[in-house]
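Allow me, if you will, to draw on your knowledge of protein folds for a short while. I have a record of one protein: its chain in single-letter code and its fold written as C-alpha coordinates. Could you please explain, in whatever detail you think fit, how the C-alpha coordinates follow from the sequence? The record follows directly beneath this note:
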Amino acid sequence: MTKLFLLICIGISLNSLAQSLPKAPISKKGTKTLSLTPDQWTFNEGKVTFVDYEGKRAMNLTQNSGLVVPKDIVFKDGTIEFDVVPLATAFLQAIYFHRKDNKEQEIVYLRTPRIGKKLSNEGIQYCPYIDGVNMWDMYHEYQGPALLKVDEWNHIKLVISGMRLQVFFNYSPDAALDIPKLEGNLREGSIAFEGASYLANIQLKPGEVDGVGPLEGLDLTRHDANYLRKWAVTPPQDLPDGRELSARTLPAPELFNDSITAERRGLINLTRKYGASTNRRVVWLRTKVLAQEAVTTNLQLGFSDEAWIFLNYQLVHVDKNLYQGNMRKYPDGRISIQNSTAKLSLNQGENDLLIGVANDFYGWGLMARLESTNKVLETDRVAPVVGLAGDIARLDLAPYVGTYASKELPFKLIFSRKDQVLLVQFTGQEPVSLLTSGNHTFIHAPYSIAFVFNPATRTVALKQGPDTKEFSKE
Protein backbone atom coordinates (compact mmCIF):
# COMPACT_ATOMS: atom_id res chain seq x y z
CA MET A 1 0.00 0.00 0.00
CA THR A 2 1.37 3.39 -0.94
CA LYS A 3 2.11 6.36 1.27
CA LEU A 4 -0.66 8.23 -0.58
CA PHE A 5 -3.21 6.06 1.21
CA LEU A 6 -2.00 7.33 4.56
CA LEU A 7 -2.25 10.94 3.42
CA ILE A 8 -5.99 10.34 3.12
CA CYS A 9 -6.16 8.55 6.46
CA ILE A 10 -4.24 10.96 8.63
CA GLY A 11 -4.25 14.08 6.52
CA ILE A 12 -0.55 14.81 6.27
CA SER A 13 0.50 16.38 2.98
CA LEU A 14 3.97 15.66 1.70
CA ASN A 15 3.89 18.53 -0.84
CA SER A 16 6.09 20.80 1.27
CA LEU A 17 8.77 23.31 0.37
CA ALA A 18 12.33 22.90 1.58
CA GLN A 19 13.41 26.11 3.26
CA SER A 20 16.72 26.98 4.87
CA LEU A 21 16.61 28.56 8.32
CA PRO A 22 15.93 32.36 8.04
CA LYS A 23 18.49 34.74 9.47
CA ALA A 24 16.34 37.47 11.05
CA PRO A 25 15.05 36.16 14.38
CA ILE A 26 12.35 37.75 16.46
CA SER A 27 14.29 38.46 19.60
CA LYS A 28 12.43 41.15 21.52
CA LYS A 29 9.08 41.19 23.26
CA GLY A 30 6.22 42.85 21.42
CA THR A 31 3.55 41.74 18.99
CA LYS A 32 4.49 41.22 15.36
CA THR A 33 1.59 40.96 12.92
CA LEU A 34 2.60 39.14 9.76
CA SER A 35 1.82 40.99 6.56
CA LEU A 36 -0.53 39.09 4.26
CA THR A 37 1.07 40.11 0.99
CA PRO A 38 2.76 37.80 -1.53
CA ASP A 39 6.21 39.37 -1.13
CA GLN A 40 6.36 38.34 2.56
CA TRP A 41 5.77 34.62 2.02
CA THR A 42 7.32 31.68 0.21
CA PHE A 43 4.79 29.31 -1.39
CA ASN A 44 4.01 27.13 -4.40
CA GLU A 45 2.85 29.24 -7.30
CA GLY A 46 -0.89 29.06 -7.87
CA LYS A 47 -1.58 27.51 -4.45
CA VAL A 48 -1.97 30.71 -2.38
CA THR A 49 -3.97 33.92 -2.93
CA PHE A 50 -4.34 37.04 -0.79
CA VAL A 51 -7.94 38.20 -0.60
CA ASP A 52 -10.61 39.86 1.50
CA TYR A 53 -12.82 37.15 3.01
CA GLU A 54 -15.80 37.72 5.30
CA GLY A 55 -14.55 41.02 6.61
CA LYS A 56 -10.89 40.06 7.08
CA ARG A 57 -7.76 40.44 5.02
CA ALA A 58 -6.83 36.80 4.51
CA MET A 59 -4.42 34.34 2.95
CA ASN A 60 -6.21 31.54 1.10
CA LEU A 61 -4.40 28.17 0.93
CA THR A 62 -5.78 25.72 -1.62
CA GLN A 63 -5.91 21.96 -1.36
CA ASN A 64 -2.40 20.42 -1.51
CA SER A 65 -0.92 23.85 -0.97
CA GLY A 66 2.36 22.58 0.40
CA LEU A 67 4.02 24.55 3.17
CA VAL A 68 3.52 28.32 3.19
CA VAL A 69 6.44 29.97 5.01
CA PRO A 70 6.82 33.60 6.15
CA LYS A 71 10.12 35.16 5.18
CA ASP A 72 12.79 36.16 7.70
CA ILE A 73 11.19 34.66 10.82
CA VAL A 74 12.84 32.68 13.61
CA PHE A 75 10.64 31.96 16.61
CA LYS A 76 11.60 30.32 19.89
CA ASP A 77 9.31 30.94 22.88
CA GLY A 78 6.11 32.93 23.14
CA THR A 79 2.64 33.03 21.63
CA ILE A 80 1.48 32.37 18.07
CA GLU A 81 -2.16 33.14 17.36
CA PHE A 82 -4.26 33.45 14.25
CA ASP A 83 -7.77 33.29 12.85
CA VAL A 84 -8.54 30.36 10.57
CA VAL A 85 -11.36 29.00 8.44
CA PRO A 86 -10.67 25.26 7.99
CA LEU A 87 -12.33 24.28 4.72
CA ALA A 88 -14.43 21.12 4.61
CA THR A 89 -12.55 19.97 1.50
CA ALA A 90 -9.27 19.80 3.43
CA PHE A 91 -7.59 16.71 4.84
CA LEU A 92 -5.86 18.88 7.44
CA GLN A 93 -5.00 22.37 8.58
CA ALA A 94 -1.55 22.65 10.13
CA ILE A 95 0.88 25.05 11.72
CA TYR A 96 4.58 24.18 11.93
CA PHE A 97 7.07 25.77 14.34
CA HIS A 98 10.71 25.33 15.41
CA ARG A 99 11.22 24.59 11.75
CA LYS A 100 14.65 24.16 10.17
CA ASP A 101 13.50 22.33 7.03
CA ASN A 102 11.25 19.46 6.02
CA LYS A 103 13.30 17.05 8.10
CA GLU A 104 13.38 18.88 11.43
CA GLN A 105 10.27 20.72 12.67
CA GLU A 106 7.26 20.39 14.94
CA ILE A 107 3.59 20.44 13.98
CA VAL A 108 0.14 21.01 15.43
CA TYR A 109 -2.57 20.00 13.00
CA LEU A 110 -6.31 19.60 12.73
CA ARG A 111 -7.74 16.54 11.04
CA THR A 112 -10.51 18.44 9.31
CA PRO A 113 -13.05 15.56 9.00
CA ARG A 114 -12.85 15.17 12.81
CA ILE A 115 -13.39 18.85 13.66
CA GLY A 116 -16.39 19.52 15.91
CA LYS A 117 -16.74 15.91 17.11
CA LYS A 118 -16.41 16.02 20.88
CA LEU A 119 -15.76 12.27 21.19
CA SER A 120 -13.10 12.16 18.48
CA ASN A 121 -9.63 12.15 20.02
CA GLU A 122 -8.08 12.50 16.57
CA GLY A 123 -9.33 16.06 16.01
CA ILE A 124 -6.05 17.79 16.86
CA GLN A 125 -2.54 16.41 17.28
CA TYR A 126 0.95 17.58 18.13
CA CYS A 127 4.06 15.66 17.08
CA PRO A 128 7.61 16.27 15.91
CA TYR A 129 9.20 15.56 12.56
CA ILE A 130 12.49 13.68 13.02
CA ASP A 131 14.65 13.17 9.93
CA GLY A 132 11.57 13.89 7.82
CA VAL A 133 9.38 11.36 9.64
CA ASN A 134 6.04 12.60 10.96
CA MET A 135 5.95 10.87 14.35
CA TRP A 136 2.15 10.84 14.69
CA ASP A 137 2.05 7.12 15.50
CA MET A 138 4.55 7.47 18.38
CA TYR A 139 2.54 10.05 20.36
CA HIS A 140 -1.13 9.09 20.49
CA GLU A 141 -1.43 10.77 23.92
CA TYR A 142 -0.67 14.11 22.27
CA GLN A 143 -4.02 14.45 20.52
CA GLY A 144 -7.62 15.28 21.45
CA PRO A 145 -10.99 16.63 20.25
CA ALA A 146 -11.03 19.80 18.13
CA LEU A 147 -14.19 21.66 19.11
CA LEU A 148 -14.08 24.16 16.27
CA LYS A 149 -16.30 24.86 13.27
CA VAL A 150 -15.57 23.98 9.67
CA ASP A 151 -16.06 26.71 7.03
CA GLU A 152 -16.27 29.41 9.74
CA TRP A 153 -13.78 31.69 11.42
CA ASN A 154 -12.06 30.27 14.50
CA HIS A 155 -9.25 31.60 16.70
CA ILE A 156 -6.26 29.41 17.62
CA LYS A 157 -3.48 30.28 20.06
CA LEU A 158 -0.24 28.35 20.69
CA VAL A 159 1.81 29.10 23.80
CA ILE A 160 5.36 27.74 23.57
CA SER A 161 7.57 27.93 26.64
CA GLY A 162 10.82 25.98 26.75
CA MET A 163 9.81 22.32 26.73
CA ARG A 164 6.06 23.02 27.03
CA LEU A 165 3.21 23.68 24.60
CA GLN A 166 -0.41 24.64 25.15
CA VAL A 167 -3.04 25.14 22.43
CA PHE A 168 -6.26 27.14 22.94
CA PHE A 169 -9.41 27.46 20.81
CA ASN A 170 -11.67 30.49 20.45
CA TYR A 171 -10.38 32.34 23.53
CA SER A 172 -11.25 29.50 25.91
CA PRO A 173 -9.25 29.62 29.17
CA ASP A 174 -8.86 25.84 29.02
CA ALA A 175 -6.20 24.31 26.79
CA ALA A 176 -7.40 21.97 24.04
CA LEU A 177 -3.90 20.42 24.12
CA ASP A 178 -1.39 20.60 26.98
CA ILE A 179 1.87 18.97 25.89
CA PRO A 180 4.22 18.20 28.82
CA LYS A 181 7.34 17.97 26.63
CA LEU A 182 8.10 19.08 23.12
CA GLU A 183 9.71 16.14 21.34
CA GLY A 184 11.45 17.86 18.44
CA ASN A 185 15.22 18.13 18.13
CA LEU A 186 15.27 21.95 17.84
CA ARG A 187 14.14 24.73 20.18
CA GLU A 188 13.79 27.52 17.60
CA GLY A 189 13.09 27.97 13.92
CA SER A 190 10.69 29.29 11.34
CA ILE A 191 6.93 28.74 11.27
CA ALA A 192 4.73 27.57 8.38
CA PHE A 193 1.12 26.78 7.50
CA GLU A 194 -0.45 24.05 5.38
CA GLY A 195 -3.89 22.85 4.33
CA ALA A 196 -6.96 24.26 2.54
CA SER A 197 -8.04 27.24 4.65
CA TYR A 198 -8.28 30.98 5.07
CA LEU A 199 -5.83 32.57 7.53
CA ALA A 200 -5.95 36.05 9.02
CA ASN A 201 -4.55 38.14 11.89
CA ILE A 202 -1.40 36.03 12.27
CA GLN A 203 0.49 37.38 15.28
CA LEU A 204 3.74 36.40 16.96
CA LYS A 205 4.36 37.46 20.55
CA PRO A 206 7.89 36.43 21.54
CA GLY A 207 8.40 35.93 25.26
CA GLU A 208 4.68 36.04 26.11
CA VAL A 209 4.02 32.62 27.64
CA ASP A 210 1.02 33.36 29.92
CA GLY A 211 2.75 31.87 32.96
CA VAL A 212 3.51 28.53 31.34
CA GLY A 213 6.79 27.26 32.82
CA PRO A 214 9.66 26.16 30.56
CA LEU A 215 10.41 22.84 32.29
CA GLU A 216 8.95 19.58 31.00
CA GLY A 217 5.94 18.18 32.83
CA LEU A 218 5.80 15.05 34.93
CA ASP A 219 6.20 11.66 33.26
CA LEU A 220 4.31 9.26 35.55
CA THR A 221 6.00 6.23 34.01
CA ARG A 222 9.38 7.51 35.22
CA HIS A 223 8.65 6.09 38.68
CA ASP A 224 7.52 2.71 37.34
CA ALA A 225 10.33 0.20 37.96
CA ASN A 226 8.73 -2.43 35.73
CA TYR A 227 9.72 -0.73 32.46
CA LEU A 228 12.75 -2.08 30.60
CA ARG A 229 14.57 1.12 29.76
CA LYS A 230 18.11 0.14 28.73
CA TRP A 231 18.99 -2.06 25.78
CA ALA A 232 22.05 -3.06 23.83
CA VAL A 233 21.33 -2.47 20.17
CA THR A 234 22.63 -3.46 16.72
CA PRO A 235 22.88 -1.19 13.68
CA PRO A 236 19.81 -1.36 11.37
CA GLN A 237 19.76 -4.08 8.74
CA ASP A 238 17.58 -4.39 5.65
CA LEU A 239 14.76 -6.94 5.99
CA PRO A 240 13.17 -7.68 2.59
CA ASP A 241 9.39 -7.84 2.43
CA GLY A 242 8.06 -11.28 3.31
CA ARG A 243 11.11 -12.34 5.32
CA GLU A 244 10.57 -13.27 8.97
CA LEU A 245 13.01 -13.57 11.87
CA SER A 246 13.75 -16.90 13.55
CA ALA A 247 16.31 -18.66 15.73
CA ARG A 248 18.32 -19.25 12.55
CA THR A 249 18.64 -15.50 11.87
CA LEU A 250 19.77 -14.29 15.29
CA PRO A 251 22.34 -11.49 15.16
CA ALA A 252 26.00 -12.06 15.96
CA PRO A 253 26.79 -10.94 19.54
CA GLU A 254 29.57 -8.66 18.33
CA LEU A 255 26.96 -6.44 16.64
CA PHE A 256 25.67 -5.24 20.01
CA ASN A 257 28.33 -2.58 20.41
CA ASP A 258 25.95 0.28 21.22
CA SER A 259 23.11 0.96 23.66
CA ILE A 260 19.92 3.01 23.85
CA THR A 261 17.87 4.35 26.77
CA ALA A 262 14.13 4.97 26.91
CA GLU A 263 12.62 8.43 26.60
CA ARG A 264 9.35 9.51 28.24
CA ARG A 265 6.63 6.86 28.58
CA GLY A 266 9.31 4.17 28.30
CA LEU A 267 9.68 4.81 24.55
CA ILE A 268 12.76 3.44 22.83
CA ASN A 269 12.85 5.98 20.00
CA LEU A 270 14.56 4.19 17.12
CA THR A 271 13.68 6.91 14.61
CA ARG A 272 15.56 9.47 16.66
CA LYS A 273 18.63 7.20 16.76
CA TYR A 274 18.58 5.76 13.23
CA GLY A 275 16.50 8.18 11.15
CA ALA A 276 13.90 7.47 8.50
CA SER A 277 13.35 4.01 7.00
CA THR A 278 12.87 4.26 3.25
CA ASN A 279 12.56 0.46 3.11
CA ARG A 280 11.85 -2.29 5.65
CA ARG A 281 14.63 -2.38 8.25
CA VAL A 282 15.16 -4.31 11.48
CA VAL A 283 17.03 -3.47 14.66
CA TRP A 284 17.83 -6.00 17.39
CA LEU A 285 17.63 -5.03 21.07
CA ARG A 286 19.06 -7.19 23.88
CA THR A 287 19.06 -7.06 27.66
CA LYS A 288 19.56 -9.46 30.56
CA VAL A 289 16.95 -10.23 33.25
CA LEU A 290 18.08 -11.80 36.52
CA ALA A 291 15.55 -14.01 38.33
CA GLN A 292 15.76 -15.36 41.89
CA GLU A 293 14.09 -18.58 40.79
CA ALA A 294 12.12 -19.92 37.83
CA VAL A 295 9.09 -17.65 37.42
CA THR A 296 6.55 -16.69 34.76
CA THR A 297 5.55 -13.12 33.99
CA ASN A 298 4.01 -11.20 31.10
CA LEU A 299 5.89 -8.72 28.96
CA GLN A 300 3.65 -5.79 28.00
CA LEU A 301 4.77 -4.53 24.63
CA GLY A 302 4.32 -1.45 22.46
CA PHE A 303 5.94 -1.53 19.02
CA SER A 304 5.94 -0.14 15.52
CA ASP A 305 5.66 -1.96 13.22
CA GLU A 306 6.66 -5.64 13.78
CA ALA A 307 8.20 -7.47 16.75
CA TRP A 308 9.83 -10.86 17.35
CA ILE A 309 10.67 -11.79 20.96
CA PHE A 310 13.31 -14.39 21.87
CA LEU A 311 13.85 -15.56 25.44
CA ASN A 312 17.06 -17.50 26.02
CA TYR A 313 17.49 -17.80 22.24
CA GLN A 314 14.03 -19.27 21.65
CA LEU A 315 11.24 -17.51 19.76
CA VAL A 316 8.35 -16.97 22.19
CA HIS A 317 6.21 -14.28 20.55
CA VAL A 318 5.58 -12.64 17.16
CA ASP A 319 3.19 -9.75 16.50
CA LYS A 320 2.38 -7.11 13.89
CA ASN A 321 1.10 -3.54 14.28
CA LEU A 322 0.59 -2.60 10.64
CA TYR A 323 -1.50 0.51 10.07
CA GLN A 324 -1.53 0.22 6.30
CA GLY A 325 -2.20 -3.52 6.31
CA ASN A 326 -5.38 -3.49 8.42
CA MET A 327 -3.44 -5.19 11.22
CA ARG A 328 -3.60 -2.25 13.60
CA LYS A 329 -3.17 -2.77 17.29
CA TYR A 330 -5.06 -0.66 19.81
CA PRO A 331 -5.04 2.32 19.78
CA ASP A 332 -5.57 2.39 16.00
CA GLY A 333 -2.04 1.49 14.97
CA ARG A 334 -0.26 3.88 17.33
CA ILE A 335 2.46 2.63 19.67
CA SER A 336 1.25 1.90 23.20
CA ILE A 337 2.18 -0.44 26.03
CA GLN A 338 -1.27 -1.95 25.33
CA ASN A 339 -0.31 -3.16 21.83
CA SER A 340 0.58 -6.73 22.83
CA THR A 341 1.45 -9.13 25.67
CA ALA A 342 4.00 -11.95 25.61
CA LYS A 343 4.42 -14.71 28.20
CA LEU A 344 7.95 -15.01 29.59
CA SER A 345 9.02 -18.14 31.48
CA LEU A 346 12.21 -17.01 33.18
CA ASN A 347 14.86 -19.43 34.38
CA GLN A 348 16.63 -19.07 37.69
CA GLY A 349 19.64 -16.81 37.22
CA GLU A 350 20.41 -14.77 34.10
CA ASN A 351 17.96 -14.73 31.18
CA ASP A 352 18.70 -13.39 27.70
CA LEU A 353 15.87 -11.23 26.30
CA LEU A 354 16.19 -10.34 22.61
CA ILE A 355 13.69 -8.39 20.50
CA GLY A 356 13.78 -7.69 16.77
CA VAL A 357 11.78 -4.61 15.71
CA ALA A 358 11.11 -3.93 12.01
CA ASN A 359 9.74 -0.77 10.43
CA ASP A 360 9.08 0.84 7.06
CA PHE A 361 6.19 3.17 7.92
CA TYR A 362 6.46 6.44 9.85
CA GLY A 363 7.67 6.21 13.48
CA TRP A 364 9.92 3.37 14.68
CA GLY A 365 9.97 2.41 18.32
CA LEU A 366 9.50 -0.02 21.20
CA MET A 367 8.06 -0.02 24.72
CA ALA A 368 8.52 -2.96 27.10
CA ARG A 369 7.27 -3.47 30.64
CA LEU A 370 7.19 -6.51 32.94
CA GLU A 371 3.66 -6.96 34.23
CA SER A 372 5.09 -8.37 37.48
CA THR A 373 8.59 -8.26 38.92
CA ASN A 374 7.90 -10.91 41.56
CA LYS A 375 11.09 -13.01 41.93
CA VAL A 376 12.88 -10.73 39.45
CA LEU A 377 16.10 -9.39 40.98
CA GLU A 378 17.45 -7.12 38.26
CA THR A 379 16.66 -5.74 34.80
CA ASP A 380 18.44 -3.43 32.34
CA ARG A 381 21.67 -5.50 32.50
CA VAL A 382 23.16 -4.06 29.32
CA ALA A 383 26.83 -3.56 30.17
CA PRO A 384 27.70 -7.29 29.88
CA VAL A 385 26.11 -7.40 26.42
CA VAL A 386 28.02 -4.40 25.08
CA GLY A 387 31.18 -5.58 26.86
CA LEU A 388 30.94 -9.00 25.21
CA ALA A 389 30.68 -7.37 21.78
CA GLY A 390 34.06 -5.75 22.40
CA ASP A 391 35.59 -8.92 23.90
CA ILE A 392 34.69 -11.04 20.86
CA ALA A 393 37.00 -9.04 18.63
CA ARG A 394 39.88 -10.04 20.93
CA LEU A 395 38.70 -13.57 21.74
CA ASP A 396 41.17 -16.35 21.06
CA LEU A 397 39.20 -19.33 19.72
CA ALA A 398 42.26 -21.61 19.45
CA PRO A 399 41.78 -23.30 22.88
CA TYR A 400 38.33 -24.52 21.80
CA VAL A 401 39.31 -25.91 18.38
CA GLY A 402 39.69 -29.68 18.16
CA THR A 403 37.88 -33.03 18.32
CA TYR A 404 35.99 -34.04 21.46
CA ALA A 405 34.66 -37.52 22.32
CA SER A 406 32.26 -38.87 24.96
CA LYS A 407 32.28 -42.21 26.74
CA GLU A 408 28.47 -42.23 26.67
CA LEU A 409 27.67 -41.18 23.10
CA PRO A 410 28.73 -42.70 19.76
CA PHE A 411 29.42 -39.41 17.93
CA LYS A 412 32.19 -36.85 18.23
CA LEU A 413 32.17 -33.06 18.26
CA ILE A 414 34.59 -31.36 15.88
CA PHE A 415 35.13 -27.66 16.58
CA SER A 416 36.74 -25.35 14.02
CA ARG A 417 36.87 -21.61 13.45
CA LYS A 418 36.13 -19.20 10.64
CA ASP A 419 37.38 -15.70 11.40
CA GLN A 420 35.94 -14.94 14.85
CA VAL A 421 33.13 -17.53 14.63
CA LEU A 422 33.34 -20.98 16.24
CA LEU A 423 31.76 -23.86 14.29
CA VAL A 424 30.74 -27.31 15.47
CA GLN A 425 30.34 -30.45 13.38
CA PHE A 426 28.65 -33.57 14.67
CA THR A 427 30.09 -36.76 13.18
CA GLY A 428 28.70 -37.21 9.66
CA GLN A 429 26.99 -33.81 9.54
CA GLU A 430 27.78 -30.37 8.14
CA PRO A 431 29.39 -27.72 10.37
CA VAL A 432 27.11 -25.07 11.91
CA SER A 433 28.12 -21.72 13.34
CA LEU A 434 27.73 -20.92 17.03
CA LEU A 435 26.91 -17.69 18.85
CA THR A 436 29.37 -16.54 21.48
CA SER A 437 27.64 -16.14 24.85
CA GLY A 438 30.63 -15.40 27.09
CA ASN A 439 32.20 -17.39 29.95
CA HIS A 440 33.51 -20.06 27.52
CA THR A 441 29.90 -20.69 26.35
CA PHE A 442 28.67 -20.97 22.77
CA ILE A 443 25.06 -21.37 21.63
CA HIS A 444 23.36 -23.21 18.76
CA ALA A 445 20.00 -21.44 18.99
CA PRO A 446 17.86 -23.49 16.55
CA TYR A 447 18.21 -26.59 18.75
CA SER A 448 18.66 -24.85 22.11
CA ILE A 449 22.11 -26.38 22.60
CA ALA A 450 24.81 -24.76 24.72
CA PHE A 451 28.46 -25.82 24.59
CA VAL A 452 30.30 -24.88 27.80
CA PHE A 453 34.09 -25.30 27.62
CA ASN A 454 36.55 -25.83 30.44
CA PRO A 455 39.96 -25.15 28.89
CA ALA A 456 41.75 -26.20 32.10
CA THR A 457 40.33 -29.74 31.94
CA ARG A 458 40.15 -29.81 28.10
CA THR A 459 36.43 -30.70 28.23
CA VAL A 460 33.19 -29.34 26.85
CA ALA A 461 29.69 -29.89 28.28
CA LEU A 462 26.83 -30.26 25.80
CA LYS A 463 23.69 -28.88 27.44
CA GLN A 464 20.21 -29.25 26.00
CA GLY A 465 17.30 -28.66 28.34
CA PRO A 466 17.92 -30.55 31.60
CA ASP A 467 20.44 -32.93 30.00
CA THR A 468 24.22 -32.47 30.14
CA LYS A 469 26.84 -34.65 28.46
CA GLU A 470 30.60 -34.21 28.85
CA PHE A 471 33.08 -34.55 25.99
CA SER A 472 36.89 -34.66 26.35
CA LYS A 473 39.38 -33.26 23.88
CA GLU A 474 41.39 -35.89 22.01
Notes: Residues 383-394 form the longest helix (12 residues). Confidence is low (pLDDT under 50) at residues 1-27. The chain is about 5% helix and 45% strand.
